[in-house]
Amino acid sequence: MPMLVSGLLAGFVLGLASGGNWRNLAKLDLKFWPALLVGVTARTAASFLGELAFSASVAGLALVAFVALVNRGMPGAWLVGLGSLLNAAVTLINGGMPVDPGALAISGKAAPSDGLHVILGPATRLPFLADVLLIPVLNNIYSVGDVVLAIGGFWMVFRLVRSR
Q: Which domain holds residue 104?
């Protein structure tokens, strides 16, 4: 979810910088927003939930995708939903989000032991959807789903702030 939040913030800042108005956020008509709040909270808290981490993470992704589907008419919503579904799929199929050990080594990070991640290996299914994208500036590893989520969040807020 950090990528989604980053996309939302970037969309807001760039929307304002390009002549938008923050008051346009009042026009936001997000249906089922409490489900989104629960989903984001579940994803955020998942790493602290021990044995429930995996279930909380997948449930959170499913709720985010559901809210995006319900609000698919909003700019960027379908990208948020797609990113959530990509992350949920690779996580479910592999029993956790696979993370590239090479990217971990380059970043200097230890293998996560949060119950949410597994090490990417020869048996990993859908490895191209795993956490394989090392972003050096941020020194973090992301998945294709994370990037799609961030782009969707960016576009949603940018368009809203820039609306007339």
A: 2-23+31-162
Alpha helices per DSSP H over 18-128: 33-45, 53-70, 77-94, 101-107
Please check the confidence at residue 1 and state whether its pLDDT lies above 70.
no
Question: Number of structural domains, the chain?
Answer: 1
Percent composition of the chain: helix, strand, coil (DSSP 3-state, to 5): 65, 10, 25
What pTM was estimated for this model as a whole? 0.91
Helix (H) or strand (E) holding 97: strand 97-99
3-state secondary structure of 2: helix
pLDDT digits (tens, 9 = 90+) for 26-72: 999 999 999 999 999 999 899 888 889 999 999 999 999 999 999 99
Rounded to whole angstroms, the Cα distance separating 57 from 63 reads: 10
Give the span between the Cα atoms of 125 and 100, in whole angstroms.
13
**What would the two tokens of residue 5 be?**
């939040």
pLDDT digits (tens, 9 = 90+) for 5-26: 889 999 999 999 999 999 999 9
AA letter at 33:
W
Residue 86 in contact with residue 61, Cβ under 8 Å?
no
